[in-house]
Amino acid sequence: LIRYYECSFWANRGTEVCANNRRVHMEAADQTVLDAVEQTVLTPAAIDYVVDRAVKVIGERRSERPNALADLQAEIRRDERRIANLMKAIAHGDAPQTIVAEIRRLEDELAAKRAQVERFGAEAPSEMDLKRLKRAAYERLGRFKDLVYADVPLARQALRKLLAGHIVCTPEGRMRGETMVGPLFGPIDLAVASPRGFEPLLPP
Fold this sequence. Notes:
The protein is mainly α and 204 residues long. It is 60% helix and 11% strand.
């Protein structure tokens, strides 16, 4: 089964709405975009930059908020006391009906705060840790397309965050695309052109 990207106006409403019936072979377009992502964005240099930048940001946040861990721990103790008091009210039979929902809300907040405490408590990664992290990321880069097709809905979400707008297929048979960090590729030719105004997000 061969699938194509085509103008939805032409396909659904006919030539009275749009006379452009040109199409792009879906598989060829998808592969073009994924190849460009690998070559332009998911490079070892980009991985190095992201990891190093993340470590720097974590360090900066810790230095800007030296009391953040103590504040979180105080909030946790306060929430625990509130939950204990609400449980006592239930035991005495004088609690409103909304108390169960309030306890669940507080428990969710507690779980999130405890997770933050664990992250704060983690030591800064060593040079060896960073090297292992980067090697693992490089290995995943080699399986990029397999990962994309293994979870297409998640891949769509990731591409939406990466792309600065839609990937445009023009009637002349060319594709254009921009990422949040620069061009994904310059205008490139496709074997079969897409209609004007059709801007698919890839992959399917």
